[in-house]
Design goal:
The complex is a heterodimer. Chain A is 46% helix and 15% strand. Chain A is α+β, with helices and mostly antiparallel strands. Chain A has 2 domains: 252 residues, Creatine Kinase, Chain A, domain 2; 88 residues, no CATH class. Chain A has an 8-stranded antiparallel beta sheet, covered by helices on one side. The longest helix of chain A has 30 residues. The termini of chain A are far apart. By secondary structure, chain B is mostly helical. In chain B, strands 1-2 form a two-stranded antiparallel ribbon. About 4% of the residues of chain B have low confidence. The chains are: A alpha+beta, B mainly alpha. Chains A and B meet through α5, β6 and β7 of A and α5 and α6 of B.
Chain lengths: 357, 165
């Protein structure tokens, strides 16, 4: 069994459903964009330079302290389906999966670290945890960065900091990204106000699978856009102590208000979602995310006790197209997938027989 | 549409005036020769021409700058504008003048890095790195349900955190 197959049997770190504010915060992620001195950026690197970069960086990662616990997936040896599995698990970007030439990702066994080699930049170090845990993540990623810096020289400039292929990442190369579950704000149509506020604070709000994806199932990724002229600690502090707690508080307040003022409508939403998931004979991944989102809210609010968060999280992942095909060990058409998806959901939810509530 | 000179009715009008001497403003369109005969030389319009010259000069500059190419990676600024991606670290100095306004726009007015430098992440970096390692060990100990080890690690973290303060 390949390492990718093994991954599909476990729940990704970002879906463990644990950690501070995990009723709203799905996961926290920090990434650092780095490039090697003495090489062009990837858009101008020829095949042999790209290959050299790939070799140098994979050796360097293997030799670093995190090297013991990681495996390196070489994309030239990986099927499209396997790369898609990595996208669905949030270990690589879509852009990276569809790229060209020598490239890959180093993933730790816990899936808490994923280092993309030859994506937009030579190296993109990412660390990931469930819940809101940015300070711990910053310490972790800074250590990885330092250990790599001992072996290689990054492209760095006194004035502009770490030099990146796109000037929007220059300076710290730091992107803090928190995935939030905001179903209540969506239901009461307050979500646009949150987006406007985020926009005013120079934050980007994206869908569940990052850049250029829609927000499906009320899952949103909030990230910083300013990477220059602020220290890493300032960016992280503002995120972890102000921005995210405020958004979480807002969502929780609306959840409370809904429970107080419209409990029947709220329960109806949750139970209808459960009813459809338990009975449908065909289902798209978007619909599954949408319905699982409502159940997740019910569970987080303590109103729905027949499924646990862990099960919902596993289903969020396993109902994704590539995972579904991995589980069935065959390539499936869209129609076949929606039938298998519905079947999987029915089987998993059958185990949790509800009592009246 | 081309305007003919109002005086000779032959040549193309190149000098355009709005005279405000009479009761109503009068527009006049003349060719170079007639304008000069009437004593309306370009010098008299110097305020405007210098402005225009400046403008032309600047637009020329922008065009020239768009053709500006990095000698190391061969990327031109026009290519960067299309793709949004730079070709090599050297581009930051080659295109510096053109990049600074862009950096200001995307980074909330900032144009200088103030964060971490290679190999140096502040005076207490080592202590923080040690604490981070202990935290990871602690996480693992808790996962392994080794609470004795976890308690010891927690004490060590506490001690180190106090030193740091």
């Amino acid at each position: 069994m390949s390492r990718i197959d093994e991954l599909t049997r476990q729940t990704g770190e970002w879906l463990r459903g644990e950690g501070p504010m995990s009723e709203v915060v799905i996961s926290s992620r920090i990434r650092l964009a780095r490039n090697l001195k003495g090489y062009p950026f990837l858009s101008r690197a020829d095949q042999s330079q790209q290959r050299k970069l790939y070799r140098e960086l994979s050796e360097c990662i293997t030799a670093s302290p995190i090297g013991k616990d990681i495996f390196i997936a070489d994309f030239e040896e990986l099927s499209e389906l396997d790369r898609q599995v990595l996208v669905e698990r949030h270990l690589i970007s879509r852009q990276h999966a569809h790229g060209e030439g020598a490239r890959g990702v180093a993933v730790s066994g816990s899936e808490r670290q994923a280092l993309m080699v030859n994506e937009e930049d030579h190296l993109r170090i990412q660390v990931l945890r469930s819940g809101l845990r940015l300070e711990a993540l910053w310490e972790e990623i800074r250590d990885i960065d330092l250990s790599l810096e001992k072996q290689i020289e990054y492209a760095y400039d006194q004035r502009y900091g770490y030099l990146t292929a796109c000037p929007t990442n220059v300076g710290t190369g730091l992107r803090v990204s928190v995935m939030l579950h905001l179903p209540a704000l969506k239901l009461v149509k307050e979500i646009d106000r949150v987006f406007r506020a985020a926009h005013d604070m120079k934050l980007a709000v994206r869908g569940i699978y990052g850049e250029g994806t829609d927000a499906v199932g009320d899952f949103y990724q909030v990230s910083n856009q300013v990477t220059l002229g602020r220290t890493e600690e300032e960016i992280i502090d503002e995120f972890g102590k102000t921005i995210i707690p405020k958004m979480v508080e807002y969502e929780l307040k609306v959840r409370e208000a809904m429970a107080r003022e419209r409990p029947y409508q709220l329960d109806d939403k949750i139970w209808r979602a459960y009813g459809i998931l338990k009975n449908a004979r065909a289902m798209s991944s978007e619909e599954a995310l949408f319905l699982l989102s409502h159940i997740r809210m019910g569970v987080a609010m303590g109103r729905f006790k027949h499924v646990d968060v862990q099960t919902i999280n596993e289903l969020l992942l396993q109902t994704q197209p590539a995972h579904l095909q991995k589980i069935h060990q065959e390539k499936l058409s869209g129609e076949q997938r929606s039938i298998k998806r519905a079947k999987l959901l029915r089987a998993r939810l059958e185990k949790h027989q509800p009592r009246d509530n | 549409m081309e305007l003919r000179c109002q005086r000779c009715q032959k040549a193309r009008a190149t000098v355009h005036l709005t005279e405000c001497t009479g009761e109503e403003p009068r527009e006049r369109h003349l060719c170079d020769a007639c304008a000069e005969e009437e004593g309306l030389t370009l010098k008299q319009q110097s305020g405007f021409t210098s402005l225009l010259e400046k403008f032309v000069d600047q637009s020329m500059k922008v065009e020239e700058l768009a053709r500006l190419t990095c000698p190391q990676c061969g990327l031109s600024f026009a290519e960067f504008r299309n793709s949004g991606l730079l070709g090599c670290p050297n581009d930051y100095s080659v295109f510096e003048k053109l990049l600074v306004p862009l950096l200001e726009r995307t980074h909330d007015g900032h144009t200088e890095h103030v964060g971490k430098k290679p190999g140096d992440s502040g005076p207490d970096a080592r202590a923080r790195a040690a604490i981070a390692q202990l935290r990871r060990d602690l996480d693992r100990a808790v996962e392994d349900e080794d609470y004795e080890l976890a308690a010891r690690l927690r004490d060590q973290i506490r001690v180190l955190s106090n030193v740091e303060d």
